[in-house]
Each structure stands twice: as C-alpha cells, then as structure tokens.
Design the sequence.
C-alpha cells in the first residue's frame, strides 16, 4: 500500500476501532512570561483575528509572539511616560512641593500613554 503524504512526513497513526487516526501534536515552544499587554493582545486575537490566533497557536509560536508584543508595549509605555513627563515639566521638585498635583498629572500621563500603546501595539 502506498504511503500517504502524512506518512511521508513521518506522521504516526493510532488505531481507534476500525479507523486509523493521525496523531497530531502542536510543536513545543519555550514558555515565557506574558504580562498585561500580551494578555490584552491575546484577547484581541481571539475575538477579532481568529485566523492569526489559530495560525500562531498551531505553529507553536503564540507564546513567543505574545511575549514580544508585551516587551514592545512595555518599552513604548515607559518611553512615552518619560517623554511626557519631561515635556510637561513634572519633576521630583513638584513631587516634594505638591504631591497631590504631581499624582494627578502623572495619572493623566499614564492614561494617555496607555491609550497610545493600546492603539499602536495591542489592538493593531
């Protein structure tokens, strides 16, 4: 009997009653921690980009991809906050003189940076 394409690629079968079922496995990938940005992107992929999600999952590259997205987003978030703090003149002196104003202004900056990162990286 001629070999199937699956058998030519070193595929294995498992007998289930009268049928031979191919033993399919997902390639193993390196486990990497995924932060909040990666989790948000994962939810976005599952809901709006199902084909991309399935392709990454079945190729064994999903975890690596999400860890990379998380790293990019975290770096962008940090640099946005630092740039906005310098542009608006938010310093340690302001923190010492008026902690409440410093907290409010920094909270606004963090919210703006979060929206930019979500728009540019997480939900793109």
Sequence:
């Amino acid at each position: 009997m001629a070999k199937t394409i699956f058998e030519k690629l070193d595929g294995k079968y498992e007998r289930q009653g009268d049928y031979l079922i191919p033993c399919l496995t997902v390639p193993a990938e390196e486990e990497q921690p995924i932060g909040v940005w990666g989790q948000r992107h994962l939810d976005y992929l599952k809901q709006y980009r199902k084909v991309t999600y399935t392709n990454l999952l079945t190729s064994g590259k999903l975890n690596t991809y999400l860890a990379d997205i998380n790293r990019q987003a975290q770096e962008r978030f940090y640099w946005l906050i630092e740039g906005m703090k310098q542009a608006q003149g938010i310093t340690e002196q302001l923190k010492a003189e008026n902690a409440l104003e410093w907290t409010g202004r920094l909270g606004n900056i963090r919210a703006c940076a979060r929206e930019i990162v979500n728009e540019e990286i997480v939900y793109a």
User: Anything to note?
Assistant: The longest strand covers residues 13-16. The chain has a mean pLDDT of 89. Residues 27 and 59 are 7 Å apart (CA to CA). The helical segments are 5-8, 36-48, 50-59, 62-88, 92-97, 99-122.
